[in-house]
Amino acid sequence: MIVEYSSKYLEDVKDLLVELEEYLVSIDQDHLDQIHSDYREKMAIVDLNDIKNNNGKCYLMIENDKAIGLIMGCIFPYGEYDYLDYKCPKRGEITELIVSKKSRSKGVGQKLINKMEEYFKSVGCEYVLVDVFAYNEIGKNFYNKNNYHNRMEIKIKKL
Question: What pLDDT sits at residue 39?
Fold first, then answer.
């Protein structure tokens, strides 16, 4: 069952965010990701404040009264001068999509992304953006299967 976030599930959200960050740290070939000692207590609050302040939503997949997956998305405003070189269609941005390891490959992520896309459409968004960590092949494959494509790439070089 998918529900909109309520504080009842805050600890589950924290657990899911930590699980994702641990995974990202484990695949980071640049060794730049970390889990700071404040991460668990602060990251969920930062993400939830972004949602609150940017017309966003957080949906949770609940099983046995526990969140086993989440998706967060916002509708961030454009900058003052973005119109100079961009058409600026209304777009939503998926900021987090996490499915607990034991619940993967069961359609949870698909249901969550469908729910967020439905929300974005309902408020007039024309596009959805998502950043995917370059080393996250599972994530990239998931989004590719859902008809997302690269528009921009960020390159990095160690000096």
Answer: 96
